[in-house]
Amino acid sequence: MTWAEFRTAVKELITVDGVRVGVATSPTGSGTPYLTRMTRNGAAEVLSHVEYYSKNNITKYNLAGISGHRPLTTEGNASLGELPGGARPQEAYRLFYDSAEVAASPPTDDEGCNRTPLANYQYTNRNDMICAHPMISKGASLIAIGKAGDFYVYPSLDREEVLEVHWDGFEVSHADADKVPYDEPMAECVAEFVKAKITREVDKDLKLHDSYYASFRKKRQELYINSFGRQALRRNPSGGATSLACAT
Questions:
Q1: Which residue in 73, 90, 211 sits closest to 152, CA to CA?
Q2: How far apart are CA 175 and CA 215, in angstroms?
Q3: Fewer beta carbons below 10 Å: N end or C end of the chain?
Q4: Edge-to-edge, what's the strand order for the sheet holding 78-82?
Q5: Is the pTM of this model over 0.90?
Q6: What φ, ψ does residue 210 adopt, rounded to 5°?
Q7: For 148-199, what is each residue's pLDDT tens digit?
Q8: Rounded to 5 degrees, what angle do the CA atoms 97, 100, 104 make?
Q9: How far apart are the first and last CA of the chain?
Q10: Maximum Cα interatomic distance, the chain, rounded to a whole number of Å
Q11: Element (H, E) at 141
């Protein structure tokens, strides 16, 4: 679902509180509505405990300023960029296209093949990349990532190339159209968090707050338990790891 769809699901689950003035809308008429802010905070509370929802994020970078891509700059012979906050990078690829226009709306039929993986390089030796003399295998691409989340890529990318970074971690500052890995059970959990916040900070009902917050923690625990086994086959096929898929 998209972030907008997730927020709508949470709003529907909190029933009448979803249309209260000062909750669903900003009391000042501007800024972020309270409901939107609490939905974001509730999602962060779930993501900090349930790793399943914080895996397999993808961020794309480009020099040409493509919509939906983060910017890159060039420093010497390397490209320079910034990771999303809190990201734990797992994989990085450079994707090649015929033009910047094609890179903006790439075909999907061979996107898994049109890429080159990047290898790690010591960040302390990043000047090797800037000055174009790193220790490198022929045809390889390198990435050096700093503690502050800045990174260098060598060789530098062209305008028709895209850098794709796969990372674990969580980012809750989504745009409405962003695809998110959340589902209905998570929406139910976040709705309990939102109701707990409303009863405490708006209604000043601590007893009801404790009830909703206990329900939130229980649902968060269920999300954690149910997340196991959702990303692997229950059983491996017989015949061993070397079985041929097309054996007759």
A1: 73
A2: 28
A3: C
A4: 70-71, 57-62, 161-168, 88-96, 115-120, 141-145, 150-154, 78-82, 73-75
A5: no
A6: -60, -35
A7: 999 999 999 999 999 999 998 877 888 888 888 899 999 999 999 999 999 9
A8: 90
A9: 41
A10: 71
A11: strand 141-145
Is beta strand 150-154 parallel, antiparallel or unpaired with respect to 57-62?
Answer: unpaired
Residues in Cβ contact with 209 at an 8 Å cutoff, skipping those fewer than 6 apart? 196, 197, 199, 200
Neighbours of 178 (CB within 10 A): 13
**Do residues 54 and 156 make contact, with C-beta atoms less than 8 angstroms apart?**
no
Strands 78-82 and 150-154: antiparallel
Enter the tokens of residue 171.
């980012």
* β 57-62/161-168 pair status: antiparallel
Q: Which residues neighbour 141 within 8 Å (Cβ) at sequence distance 6 or greater? A: 94, 116, 117, 118, 119, 153, 154, 155
- Supply the DSSP string of 53-117, one letter for each residue: GGS-EEEEEETT--TTSEE-EEETTEEEEEPPTT-EEEEEEEEE-SSHHHHHS--SSSTTTSEEE
pLDDT in tens, 31-50: 788 999 999 999 999 998 99
